[in-house]
Amino acid sequence: MVKTSSVNRIVLKIALIISVSQLFILLILGNFPHMVSGKLVEFAHIAFMIFLNLILLVLVTSPLIYFLVISPFVKARDEAISQATHLAHFDLLTNLGNRRFIHQNLEKIKAQCDRRNVFGAIMLIDLNKFKKINDEYGHDAGDAILISVAEKLTKAVRSEDFVGRFGGDEFVILINYLDTDEQQSKNKALTIAQKLQTEINISIEFEDIELKVGSSTGICLFNSSDKSNDELIKRADIAMYRAKKANKKVIIY
To answer: Smallest Cα–Cα separation from 201: which of 251, 139, 141, 128?
Structure first.
């Protein structure tokens, strides 16, 4: 970012260089009057004084120029970059991490679990009866459900975990640091999933209508970085559809 002090330093350096050059020229002209006329010396002196006045004007007005012209432009540019970065990583409706950000965080959590030799988990949550609500009450009602679920999931998870919207009515929860033992990790993952489902199943009010959805959850454990993100998500997706088909709330792959 350009700052006033930087502008002043640049102007001062330019002024110093040109001033020294002008003084050098004046000395030459003054010492060798036979080479030039007196009018030329006078003209050079006037030009030099005008230049000094211009430099003084720039120094005085540069803070004003910065705050009135440069600063708003830089601020608008920074805001545009920040907004573009946010849109590249977050879902516009729910403000949860989008698919790209899910993959980035999954890579990070896999690496952390690998270093500590502990299990983590990816949970894929699909809302039940969401399409029926969308068709019966409209997309605004569907959006209200998605926003409500996103808020509930965000509040229910731990600070070291991650919540994202995978797309449509599917959400992803990345669970970090479960346990070193696989069975204990499964038990903890089931407990977390059941807690999240309890939160999701709470009905919400929309235009004097009570809306309620259920959910099916598929879980896939991991404790190293040897499996790709796509493979882990695929396994969680398979477990989720098994849970939905069997009318069960949670299934671990």
So the answer is: 128
Q: Which of 91, 126, 161, 169 is catalytic?
A: 169
Q: Please name the residue ranges forming H helices in the chain.
A: 4-31, 38-65, 71-89, 99-116, 130-137, 139-156, 182-200, 229-245
User: In which region does residue 152 sit, left (phi positive, over 0), alpha (psi from -120 to 50) or beta (all else)?
Assistant: alpha
Distance (Å, whole) CA 162 – CA 154: 8
What is the CATH code of the structural domain delimited by 99-252? 3.30.70.270
Name the residue ranges covered by the structural domains of the chain: 4-87, 99-252
| Cβ atoms of 109 and 120 closer than 8 Å | yes
Average pLDDT over residues 222-233: 90
pLDDT digits (tens, 9 = 90+) for 77-104: 777 777 777 778 889 999 999 999 999 9
SS3 198: helix
Q: Any idea which residue has 């006037």 for tokens?
A: 46
Q: Answer yes or no: 169 catalytic.
A: yes
pLDDT tens digit string along 47-75?
Answer: 666 666 666 666 566 666 666 656 676 67
